[in-house]
Amino acid sequence: MQLRITCFKVFGENDIFLAGHQLGGPQYFAKRYNGSAWTNVTSGGSLVDFLDVAVSGTDVYVISDRIWDDDMESYLGYPGIIGGDTYTGGGKNFKAVALADDGKVYAVGKAGAIVSYSGGSWSAENSHTTKDLTCVAAGGGWVCAAGRDRTVVCKNDGSTWQAVTNLSEKAENKFVGIAWSGGETFVAIHNTGNDGEQSYIGADKGTIYKIEAGAASLLRTGMSSSLGGIGSDSEGKVAIGGSGGIVYGNALPLSEENKGIHPGIYMLLLD
Question: Which tens digits make up the pLDDT trace of 183-218?
């Protein structure tokens, strides 16, 4: 049996979430570790495929019930709460979810879709972009979502979504991850030429941006490896994983830390 991992999140030393599905078959799995044992996680009493997860106390927010979408080149699903309300107004068009400092939960996805959960209900928000959003992170009173064509939109508490400054749109540059890095700062990663039919030989070189208070600056580009995932801990210390077993971190400015990791590791989500 071959299994594909669709979600792996570490929320603490004794709180790990893992989900995926059987390739070519109907079997799903979702498990949570409490420090001593793994237990099954279900939605409505059934096992479903979870794509992303955020937690707030005993509440678990997920993107679930996956479909494959060729335009996004990945899986999409519904945002919802395990044992609670699922947002179906936008269809299965969402990819990532994050918990903000004020307790509001944000889910992002296709064609600039953003919905938030607060006060017991989901509501749609205007992202002011029609670009596919592939990742979202929150911290320091800010929320930032990134996606296709080098698109990043951010908002701080009580404000509306705005495009970041100092970052022009560029095709074939899809952000594959974003993480909070302390204060008003986020780190986002993409790979050149990784987005669409016009990818070219020698593409997929990693690029790292810093997003601070809604403004972008380039940290590193032209890397010899493609980047696959990014995460940070509760202090905002960042780790980035990529091809060739490369791991970068732990804080800005980023520096290479380790090149001895197995190439199969493409995602480090530490908190």
Answer: 999 999 998 876 655 555 556 788 999 999 999 999
Would you state the pLDDT for residue 257? 45
DSSP designation for 89? T
CA distance 63 to 102: 20
Say if strands 227-232 and 215-220 run parallel, antiparallel, or are unpaired: unpaired
Tokens representing 163?
Answer: 């495009």
Burial 238-268 (b: 16+ CB within 10 A, else e): bbbbbbebbbbbbebebeeeeeebeeeebbb
Query: Taking residues 140-155, what's their average pLDDT?
Result: 96
- Please tell me the distance from the alpha carbon of residue 234 to that of residue 256, in angstroms, as a whole number: 21
Using alpha carbons, list the distances in angstroms from residue 123 to 62, 98, 116, 126, 237: 16, 15, 5, 10, 31
State phi, psi for 57 to the nearest 5 degrees: 65, -125
The sheet that has 238-242: what strands, in order across it?
227-232, 238-242, 246-250, 255-258
Write the CA distances from 175 to 58, 76, 229, 261, integer angstroms: 31, 16, 10, 23
